[in-house]
Specification:
The structure is a homotetramer. Helix content of chain A is 15%, strand content 33%. By secondary structure, chain A is of the alpha+beta class. The termini of chain A are close together. At the B-D interface, loops of B face loops of D.
């Protein structure tokens, strides 16, 4: 079993997809043990910190990577299977940020109203008990929520020579902020440049669907992913697979465009790989899909559309990459 | 136990919320056994029927009601607890409809492209096995999906003297098309006119989240609801309660506005009835909510935001109407 | 020349399109001299008034009408030619209104932020000089803007048995809030119910494109319109004609849907009445249209798309109703 | 007078804002004579060409530049005054492009419908008569439209280390596609990187407001711009100035967000530079602005909000850069 261990030096962090040289080369079939810093660069440490004072906006959401995937060429697909995602510290942090988030005006949804109060919440993470504890700032409500670690961000270099901020989700992946990106999930990303240039970051101890205030329970993570490469198969939008479901993460604005993208690509996928007629696929999705919001706070919004594999014709999905990488992950974990 | 049994004559059906006289008066605390016709008025009966030829658009989505709720005044809230929802026939039907649905241009999202093919799908309903069976029109894929009966439409007369088509969801309820409106759920609706003028219809054997093509597995239903009235408590948007969750169904366009409405009203609810500070409520929702799409096909889109009651401070919700009506429903079912 | 003079009693005002009996019957070819109250029902009279305290939201934007147009049947088109629109008082008023307007969160674009300050502006109207004078509340900036009187609202009863608030613009017309609705313009509205049930109101001394804060320079108006009826010709969306241009006013949300509607209907109009192929019409509109925003503040947003008649093939538009009604108006004015 | 003449070699063209080294350095106060290729790289030459076959999407919309503006630092503003824009050939071309444009589904507004027919239109440009002539493909309608040359694209390198395709409009300028970008206009752009890295291209012989089908009358241009630099003054969104108006070009999705941005920045500008209180500025804009659509077809949509300088308090705008550069341009033109 090939294992690559990588912990970025501060100077190696990146804040974009595309536009930076690779930090390592990785061979498909390899397990990558990677440490990712939290979205605030680890700079928020106490209750008196304030995002708007502590963090330069250029340095929000640092990524570990990019990794040059050996053999990846334009038109291929990289598979990223999350083997495990574990909080690297015993706390996480969330915050309101002025003019950022879903229930405030923003730079884009611009109004003349003042910003909401900037307030920080620290969460205790109990990895053994699998909880992350919310404490109200006012009053005394406390509740232990289930720990459900995930990566807000995973992506490759974009097409059309673009370089995008790590705050952006789009066809290249990026800041999708879906809780579906947890251990056990395989994420398929279309390759736009030689080597794919894969990065990931933005660990969340958990988040609700939509990441309402724009900030989940942010945390550094010790993560293990298994990397696959499907040659000659293109992937237009990030697709996900678990043991039970396939999904598409569509991004755009307005939110119905993100919804349309995720649905249209799921229908195309069912037609291409599962042998369904397009309208039959449209009909089956109509009655059977689940459709949780991912984020309504980033420069593009993201919707996930998912369907149970049990409802579909039998088919080999991405040459059974999910099964293969899951096997690799199990071997590693039991190893 | 007061039980009111009502099966509309064809001439009694209505196609609007508001604007029609009540068919019956109902006393809070009463159980209502009501039959609802399917969204096509029962006129689609065979595979050669076509919605666009068979149905006059004025007569889509007939409602049973309105029911005049005794004592309901402006500023009160009506509680509708779904005790049971059972398909009245052994089949359901879905269809594409020209320029209607989520993956086509429409009258509003207008383009110059031609309509998609109009195609009907009949589903066998096996009430005993609790399945509803999809058969592909092309090829031979067949799958038995779980039967999960629900009402697409439940609502009261709107405010501002308006009368709205039964195709529309909004603050008065209406065509929200959320699968959460199943047996076991209590729906709270703010009263805008004396007597509330409650109607329901649009039974679905099941639907995916979003009702992608615009048409679920449409069916006539034998439904039992328990009716409650909470005096002096206003409800700005439809709210739902189950044994495990509270939810808000927000409607609007674009879809992010439906999302904002459902979130903002959930935060307001947590602040008003659960004693949380507004920003603390915003934060807790950010980490803990679930947010499934309801519909992206109607004149307004609908999003549901839900949170587990276990994560909230203990509180009496709408004077425990859900518990009380659930008890009433159980007595009826065991009766 | 048939002239109908109508000044509503307070008890005759209406606040909806549809749902109210006609105040008068009018024969096509008649001139209607009509007085319209301002959007605040004339109740805002001094600088200390506040909309949110002074006005019950049910009584915003009263309409004069509805007028039963003799002979109008479903599928016909009513033509309303504005002969003259003159402010009935020597002042107009505007105001910010909490959670209403374009640069604030609203009931639909819901956030947790506080409302903007509620502030009133009174404008002096000088009908002789054709000016309406803005005075800043803070500092001493004063400017005489051109008087450009128009009606924010003109419409007929909606289809599908609906009754809509006079705050709403849609396919039936209503609160479109476009400055194009000035003297010299003919507005074509499709008839949805027998008699059409035409109403108008919401006079503005002037407004910018978009009606940014949601409130123009509101004023009661002495208005003269000439009424025409085009039998057997349907009109899907409000269309406007001046001596130089034809236009479509499309309404919906998001704003791009209002834009799409106005463009798609203009292209359809060019194809149906001017003999252009659909794609040629699409191309000509691409290079030649003007596209000013009408409103981004009402329950639906409205966009106007216009094109010069000089750029189009010669054609008889609505059987030359504009020319005929313009002639009628000139005869009246010189009469 | 300093004049820099620049005609790019094919190998010097660029397709992004940011990410490419400068082709020349330019000193503020210099006149730049620049040739720009058309959006199709000059590769569409005959009626049988088809965009989807002839053009690699990576090479759509080539830019001339970037120019390194001497002394430009982050937080400054570059002023680009268009002295003259003249078509370099005697023809222009437009086309429908599959799944691109305003009245079709697209990659983002995704549906299952087929693409519209791909069709090309060639326009004769008569520079002496100042006309550009449309000929219908079907039937025989021909019309000479006014020649109104403009640049669809002008911009600087983006912030946050991003590199954006030349198809994108945003805060850095880019593919705004507003007909206001004609000779006589000064465009102010905020500097995000040292040297600003200014590029321009995408000449249009004319376009309607919105660029409906996504393609204007595309043409290579001989353009002269005068370059200014305003030190220490930041500009959040592209602002424009003519002899009569000031304007803001806001970009985003949905279209109401582009609208909000353009309005909010105009209000901020009036408050910062013209001494108006924010709410007074909001009010004056409400009654006095013009608001034409720029594009509803690009990855972001663009709206322009404009107001007459005559309606505003007297003020020095960007240290009178427009007047100064206009003078420079007149001196150049008078030879």
């Amino acid at each position: 079993m090939d294992v690559l261990r990588y912990r970025p030096e501060p100077a190696e962090l990146s804040w974009t997809f595309g536009g930076v040289p690779p930090v390592r080369t990785i061979r498909p079939g390899t397990l990558l043990e990677v440490w990712t810093e939290d979205a605030f660069g680890g700079n928020v440490r106490g209750p008196e910190d304030r995002i708007s004072r502590t963090i330069d906006p250029r340095f929000l959401n640092p990524q570990s990577g990019p990794f040059y995937v050996e053999g990846a060429e334009v038109g291929d697909t990289v598979a990223v299977h999350f083997v495990s995602i574990e909080p690297a510290r015993d706390w996480g942090v969330s915050s309101t940020i002025p003019f950022f988030g879903g229930l405030t005006s923003t730079m884009r949804t611009a109004t003349l109203q003042p910003a909401l109060e900037e307030r920080l919440w620290f969460y205790e993470v109990d990895a053994a008990a699998r909880t992350v504890t919310f404490r109200a700032a006012h009053g005394n409500h406390t509740v232990a929520l289930p720990l459900d670690p995930m990566h807000g961000t995973v992506g490759v270099a974009p097409a059309l020579y673009e370089v995008r901020s790590s705050l952006v989700p789009d066809a290249f992946g990026g800041n999708m902020d879906t809780p579906e990106m947890r251990a056990g999930t395989t994420c398929y990303l279309g390759v736009n440049v030689e080597g794919a240039m894969l990065s990931l970051g933005d660990g969340h101890c958990r988040q609700g669907e939509g990441e309402t205030c724009g900030v989940a329970v942010e945390a550094a993570m010790d993560t293990v992913v298994a990397i696959g490469l499907i040659k000659g198969v293109a992937t237009p939008w990030p697709r996900l697979e678990t043991d039970s479901h396939i999904m598409v993460a569509g991004s755009g604005r307005p939110l119905e465009d993100a919804w349309r993208v995720s649905h249209q690509d799921l229908v195309s996928w069912l037609a291409r790989d599962f042998g369904l007629d397009h309208l039959d696929a449209y009909q089956l999705v109509t009655q059977a899909c689940e459709c949780p919001v991912a984020n309504v706070v980033d420069p593009n919004y993201t919707m996930v559309t998912k369907i149970r594999k049990a409802y579909l014709p039998k088919a080999s999905i991405y040459r059974d990459a999910h099964a293969e990488l899951t096997g690799l992950g199990k071997a590693y974990l039991s190893g």
